[in-house]
What we know:
Radius of gyration: 20 Å
Number of strands: 11
CATH architecture of the largest domain: Roll
Shape: elongated
Number of domains: 2
Order of helices and strands: HEEEHEEHEEHHHEEEHE
Amino acid sequence: xxxxxxxxxxxxxRTLASGLLAGELTAPGPxxxxxxxxxxxxxxxxxxxxxxxxDRTTLDMAFDDTDLPAVxxxxxxxxxxxxxxxxxLWLSGWMRAVPAHRARGLALAYAARxxxxxxxxxxxxxxxxxxxxAEVRLTTGDxxxxxxxxxxxxxxxxxxxxxxxxxLADLAHTCSSALTTLAGAALGAPLPSGAAAxxxxxxxxxxxxxxxxxxxFHRVRIPFPTAVADxxxxxxxxxxxxxxxxxxxxxxxxx
Length: 255
C-alpha cells in the first residue's frame, strides 16, 4: 500500500482542534468574539475554555436554557518568518454549558488526553463549555475545504503536532544548507541565487519546505518513505533525507 504524501483535510482539522492552539469563539449576543482555549476528545467533542472575567459573563448571559450556536476559529499561524500561511479551521455547532459540579471531573478527563494548562484552572479562574460540531471547514494554501463531519469525527490528530515547532526550529538552525540542497533536488535544479529553503511544516507523512522567489513563496513537499509514528522515527527519517540530500530527487515531490 502506498504511503500518503500528506494529512487528509479531516486529519489536519482534528490536529488543529487537538489543543495546542488557541482559538476565537463567535456566539450570538454581546459576547461577540471571545479568545478561548480548546481541546478535542477522541469522540470529536471540543472543550471550550474561557477565562473568568467580562467575556465569560457576557457569554453566560447568551445562554437561555438551551444550547448556543457558535463558531470556533483556530488559526495555525506561521511559526516564523519567512513562512507562508499554514491553515485555518472553523468548527460550527452547538455549545452547551457544563455545571460546575461536573466541570472539574470533565476537565481532568480532557487533561488526560492533552494536558493543557487551562484545564487545570477550571472552576478556579476558567469555565468549561462543550461544543458539538455540525460543520467543519478548513483553509490551507491549497484553498478551502468543507470537511465531511463523519470523516472529521473518525480522524485522529497528527502524532507529531506536539513536537513540530521544536523540530522545525532545530532544522532551521542546524540544517539550512542541507535543506536548500534538498529543495533543489525536488525541483530538479538548484534554487535561484540567494534563495534558501526554510522548514515550514511537518507531519507523520513528510516535511514542508518553502523558499522565496521575488514576491512569492514556493512550497516543496518531501514525503517520508513510510509514515512515522513518533519523534524517534521522525528523527531517523529526517536524518536519512538530509544525509542523502544529494541523491533525494527520487524521494521528494514539489508543489
